[in-house]
Amino acid sequence: MALGAMDIFKHLPAGAKLENANCKKCGSPTCMMFALKLAKKQAKIELCPYAPSVLVEKINEGNKIQQKEVKVDDKIFGGENVMYRHQKTFKNPTGIVVELDCEEFGEFSEKFKRLSNFEIESIGEKFKIDGIYLKNSTPEAEKTVKEAGFAFFNEKTLEEFQIVDIQNKSVPEIIKTLTHIRQKAIVERDEKFSNPTCVFLEEKNPKILSAIASTLICKYASIIIFKEFDEAVFTTLITLRQNIFTDPEKPLQVESRVYEFNNPDENALVFLTTNFALTYFAVANELSSLKRSSFLVVTPSEGMSVLTAWSAEKITAKIAKKIVENNDILNSVKIKKIIIPGLLADLKTDLEEALEGWEIIIGTTEAYKIPDMIKNLNW
Ligand code: SF4
Fold this sequence. Notes:
Blueprint: H1 5-9, H2 31-39, H3 53-63, E1 69-72, E2 75-78, E3 95-101, H4 105-117, E4 120-122, E5 125-127, E6 131-135, H5 139-147, E7 151-153, E8 162-163, H6 171-186, E9 197-201, H7 206-218, E10 223-226, H8 231-244, E11 258-261, E12 269-274, H9 277-288, E13 294-299, H10 306-311, H11 317-325, H12 328-331, E14 337-340, H13 348-354, E15 359-362, H14 370-375
Parallel strand pairs: 3-6, 3-10, 6-7, 8-9, 9-10, 12-13, 12-14, 14-15
Antiparallel strand pairs: 1-2, 4-5, 11-13
Helix pairs in contact: 7-8, 11-13
The protein binds iron/sulfur cluster (SF4).
Iron/sulfur cluster is lined by residues 12-14, 20, 22-26, 28, 31, 34, 48, 50.
């Protein structure tokens, strides 16, 4: 584990209450400042002539690389430095790579076309397959793969990865093997395990393929090379991967502004919610499928969901007033009613006081119930 500033400081002369404390020979005004720089890897331990050998050893150990980053074309794999997502975000999503055999020409062109056409959008991000592993590769096929924007893999590229054999292994055995490798690399900093991991997945049954690949994304494949390509399975896997590799400290959020659905005019409905991406896309999805046009006021709520934002006072009448009053188009609507999430019912009175001329309507607690609610409106 990397050392924190206090772990370092207690070994330095000022922390250990020894002679030479805060002597400034390292270029820092105090031992504490030097410890902070060391913890951030902004200084070298050799600058302090009084650092004890136990500290030097700990720092050198902490500086050892855990898992190497490997760049293949413009994609980066590996480079992880934690075991668990709650410790710090995972860095580089598991690479999703599909195998193509250049000697099977018919299959090559048909599969390549499907791979090129495959693109999904989830929570505002677009995803494609990361790379293609070419068996029996030719320079021409390599060029085609790279020109289509895929990272190109062959036997040579894979030399920088450690290939983990999962053939004939049960799911618990696969987890055990990959966890052991990760532990060796991250916790023990054993250089023999520092290359990112690569797993070949030959399973054909889509259900079993999904189960094993999901396991590999969670624990702990750096890339998976699939023999089979199935649009439905890959959509599921990429969505799972997006969730696993999102920074837990930075909730996905969308820009705070007024969004328009179905060319809104003066008869449009007005909705309000927070800028948590999952909430936004759930509501936006329903609004875009309504027969009526609408505006959606998205408040700046630091990516918090409705209830969390309300409890943290990140969605208040004052905040909503600012965004509503600054939007001219919104103020041109004839029906001065704002539909708020059902979970914000307690905010109704405050909102009505702050937003003069607007009536606040308590909406549904779930986005999928919006269409039913709209059907019953008589305005
Ligand atoms: Fe402290 Fe060592 Fe820097 Fe002197 S050289 S201030 S003892 S860290």
